[in-house]
């Protein structure tokens, strides 16, 4: 192995251990929150696409955990930001950690991918740009990825919280 290869491997290992550390800090924070709220759930940690990923999974029925999702995922978004702040407080680094509760974000990702693919098909067949409804940054990212996978381009327009995706024809 050359020195450059060893260095790149070491950097990759450092990044992985840093993301694992973020996941550990987030898990500790969320366990404390679950205790305070008297909610039952298991915490699962992973590293996906160069970011820490933490999921709270119901261990019995899961109805209580829906309180952590809220209407249209609003509570989940806020909880994710609080968790990122807790990680930042411990590490001093900005976190891109993703939080999911009871599969809400995973299901949403699947729905949005389908929506993005349909919008791409519509733009391709009509030859006209397709404007979508306002979305959160997470939702827009999933739609952009789906449009790109369909072979078209998309852009975000507008100001938060009314920012939306426009799918451009070929």
From TrEMBL:
Source organism: Streptomyces tropicalis
Residue span, R3H domain: 106-170
PROSITE patterns: R3H
Annotated Pfam families: R3H (PF01424)
InterPro entries (UniProt xref): Jag_KH, KH_dom-like_a/b, KhpB, R3H_dom, R3H_dom_sf, R3H_KhpB
Protein name: R3H domain-containing nucleic acid-binding protein
């Amino acid at each position: 192995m050359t020195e450059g290869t060893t260095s790149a491997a070491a950097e990759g290992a450092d990044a992985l251990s840093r993301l694992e550390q973020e996941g550990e800090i987030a898990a500790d924070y969320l366990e404390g929150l679950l205790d305070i709220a008297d909610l039952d759930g298991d915490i699962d940690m992973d590293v996906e696409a160069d970011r820490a990923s933490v999921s709270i999974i119901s261990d019995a029925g899961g109805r209580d955990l829906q309180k952590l999702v809220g209407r249209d995922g609003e509570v989940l978004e806020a909880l994710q930001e609080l968790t990122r702040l807790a990680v930042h407080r411990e590490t001093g680094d900005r976190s891109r950690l993703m939080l999911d509760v009871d599969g809400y974000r995973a299901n949403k990702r699947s729905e949005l991918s389908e929506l993005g693919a349909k919008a791409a098909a519509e733009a391709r067949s009509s030859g006209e740009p397709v404007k979508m409804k306002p979305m959160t940054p997470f939702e827009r990212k999933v739609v952009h990825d789906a449009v790109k996978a369909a072979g078209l381009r998309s852009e975000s327009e507008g100001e938060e919280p009314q920012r939306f995706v426009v799918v451009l024809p070929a």
